[in-house]
Amino acid sequence: MRVLMVEDERVLADYVADGLRGENMTVDVAYDGTDALRRLARSDYDVVILDRGLPGVSGDQVCEELTREGGRTRVLMLTAAGGVRDRLQGFSLGADDYLPKPFDYSELLARVSALGRRTGTALPPVLRCGGLTLDTSRLRASRDGVPLALSPKEFAVLEVLMSAQGRVVSAEELLERAWDENADPFTSAVRVVMAKLRAKLGGPPVIETVLGIGYRI
Mind telling me which residue stretches traverse the membrane in this protein (predicted)? Predict the structure, then answer.
């Protein structure tokens, strides 16, 4: 899952971003609305965590712009104003969920995970394909009942492939969904992670390379 954290309180923004990265999510951070719109224009996110009280371009304006363009990105609004009227206003702007400050991190994580499952075809939290099992909520993977010790990046790549349900996934899409915006599209990062992942999955091979197109399970 790829997430954009938009929050002008840098300590809070970095804290949440680091926590989500620890849950195998790919997270970019914007500290103001202008930067958020710039990132949204060039990258595809599953979920945007959006503070309403941003300096300059407000969170409300960002939400309105994102809603006007359509797409599959879900918005979780954060605000110090948590009254019913404030929540209703947030929903009217196009937000999918609303969480008042201060908030419990575990609740934010649960809400982000739930929104992420709504960005496309609904998928269960436990993905299965042949002998592979991927529990995205507990961050556990196994093959034929044997646990797999995957790195966060390997787990993220496997999740993208299994979520595709047999569709071929290009290297560009893997970079978009499993790496952050700092990933260099001209590096061999995908091939390196794919080689390590295949080695850990063992035989017989389950990841097929479709020459000139990408990978699929």
Answer: none
